[in-house]
Amino acid sequence: MIKVGQINHLEVVKQTEFGLFLNAGEYGSALLPKRFVPEGTEVGQSIDAFLYFDSDNQLVATTETPIAQVGEWGLMTIQGVNSIGAFASWGIKEKDLLIPFSEQRGRLREGQEILIYVYTDKASGRIVGTTKFNKLMDQTPANYEINQSVDLLIAERSDLGYKAIVEGAHWGMIFTSDVFGKLFVGKRLKGYIKAIREDGKIDLSLQKIGVAKMDDLSSKILELLEKKGGFLPLNDKSSPEAIFSAFRTSKGTYKKTIGGLYKQGKLVIEKEGIRLVENNESND
């Protein structure tokens, strides 16, 4: 089934001096302009191409990859605003994405970088964007478990921390006290359910909480030590950035974890890093 607003695998049915025509199923054919044709492509072959409607409502193909396809979120820059809405650059040179005024949570301005959801307007058939995410969220109560691993999309920053979309379906909050590493709007990452409040609001963590957090990190440290020949140049004096880069955890959690492993006799903490204790050493 052909999906406009998404990348499709399409057969080349005709070659002309100005490009290729691709079989677009129920839509007939779509022109892939010559400048986007991969070298050596011939009739009968199939290629991956993104389909969209141009300003004349003609179906067009491109081998460019959009920032976000229909049904996806993407961080985009507003290129201009006119009487019908704002237009964002979404990775297609010949076509900016319209965000109608009715789909703007707040008035957008030229040069602004913002997270946008791409969808097909049922009334007009046009591919447009929206910043009104509440209508996209699942309105049924969230059914997550504490410490459950979830996919997160950072949607906006607030005085409390970062608001994130959980599993593409629910709102969650990463409070400032739980933030470590670099977060920014549009970033996708793994997180964990920290709490679900009585009012249904979801608190998030970037690492497991409680004993599970420590146990999980202990396993990761020991595994990496094994892979690296028994030594890592990371100790309790290392920078938070270096620790986060290696284990995606805070320096405080890392220090507590290697301290615990030291007390268990599984590693030693040296001036330059940590070293795995061999089994025969620990048995002496």
UniProtKB/TrEMBL annotation:
Name the domain of life this protein comes from: Bacteria
Q: Name one GO molecular function term.
A: nucleic acid binding
Q: Which residues form the S1 motif domain?
A: 3-64, 69-132, 145-207
Cite the Gene3D superfamilies for this sequence.
Nucleic acid-binding proteins (2.40.50.140), Winged helix-like DNA-binding domain superfamily/Winged helix DNA-binding domain (1.10.10.10)
Q: Where is the signal peptide?
A: none
Family, per entry: Belongs to the CvfB family.
What is the official name of this protein in its record? GntR family transcriptional regulator
